[in-house]
Known about the structure:
Blueprint: E1 7-11, E2 14-15, E3 22-23, H1 26-38, E4 42-52, E5 57-64, E6 67-74, E7 78-81, H2 89-101, E8 106-107, H3 115-122, E9 136-137, H4 140-150, E10 152-157, E11 167-172, E12 175-181, E13 187-192, H5 195-206, E14 211-215, E15 227-235, E16 241-250, E17 265-267, H6 269-276, H7 279-304, E18 309-316, E19 322-328, H8 334-338, H9 342-365
Parallel strand pairs: 1-4, 1-7, 7-8
Antiparallel strand pairs: 2-3, 4-5, 5-6, 9-14, 10-11, 10-14, 11-12, 12-13, 15-16, 15-18, 16-17, 18-19
The structure holds adenosine-5'-diphosphate and magnesium ion (MG).
Adenosine-5'-diphosphate (ADP) is lined by residues 133, 154, 156, 160-164, 166, 214, 216-217, 219, 226, 228, 256-259, 313, 315, 325-326.
Domain ATP-grasp: 124-360
GO molecular function: ATP binding; metal ion binding
Pfam families: ATPgrasp_YheCD (PF14398)
Amino acid sequence: MRNQAKTLGIMAIFKGSPNQPTFREKSYYTTLTRIGSKLGIRVVVFSPRQVDFTSRMVIGFELIERVWKRIKIPFPQLIYDRYFMGPHIAKYKPIIERLQNDPQITFLGHGLSGKWQVYNILIKSDILQKWLPHTQLFSPTLLEKNLAEQGAVIIKPMAGTHGSGVIRVSSVNKGYELMGRTQDNKPFTRMIPTKEGLLTRIQKLTAGRKYILQPYLSLHTTDGLPFDIRILVQKNGQGNWTTTGKAVRVGKKESITSNLHGGGIAVRLEDFLSQHYPHNLCKEIAKEVNLLAQLLPPFLEENHGRLVELGIDVGVDTQGHVWIIEVNSRPGRTVFRQIEDGNARLRSVALPVKYAEYLLKERIGG
Ligand SMILES: Nc1ncnc2c1ncn2[C@@H]1O[C@H](COP(=O)(O)OP(=O)(O)O)[C@@H](O)[C@H]1O
Ligand SMILES: [Mg+2]
């Protein structure tokens, strides 16, 4: 009974047959299990496809003596949402919402549903709005208008990840140039001589998904390396926001995205900035980045609902202007391993469990 009273369920995507499922992020969940056991919190991984509301039981996996064993347990009191939006989201959305609305279950954080939703919240902040690129819902008419005015724009899927589907459209001498990544994240470049041709191609590329439109920003170094700053902010064991770590992701020269999944690499922030910007500008950039990392999480939470951690993608243009590019509620942790920041890496894994412990105390306390 005591054990059951302290269970953290990690909601994840399972692949394979229902009898022999497998899941990603195993090493992360292994560490969460280890930290959980030190704090007296049992960690179980489950998928929304094996939740039974009648018996209030879930089938999941628990790490017992180094082996992930299949188990059936009562609903966990706490849920850590690592369910990345995938092709089955429509099917599982009602189940996830039912779990979120269950009075006996607390989600460490409620997932953000996409770039457009986040933009519309953040734009209401008098302070944060200065860091937001002007963002509009994509339409062919707006694309034409903005291209005529700005020369180059970015279109990207509202619910995209890893840089997939991010495309720069530019007006050039011989017509139009498309450069970016396909829906399955392959880099491509294409010249299109006519406006009609462009619109037909864009219609094909955007079919079936919702897109947003932004000005194309020069988010690269003066010698053409695309990069962005990834900040991980998390709740700690006192329920307060803290910045766990920061790193720079650098893409390939011929790319417009800097995501690790698209071939980018992670490097240390201070080293990178000082190599590419003058000293005073570096200080200014660092100051703004720290300020936005402090202001954004509580503002977003106030207008969205509980959050446990955020990966904030910050762009810096050739002038040194800082831009909020994306806020992710299911951030990865690979950057800290790549830059060998062991401290940030450890904290990044320990904090979700410490926050879970804090929430359990709060529940018991009242
Ligand atoms: N408005 C923009 N101007 C220039 N580059 C951009 C713009 N928006 C995104 N990018 C580039 O594309 C990358 C991926 O965009 P992002 O919005 O973070 O989508 P994803 O969810 O696919 O990571 C960014 O990290 C940045 O390198
Ligand atoms: Mg991103």
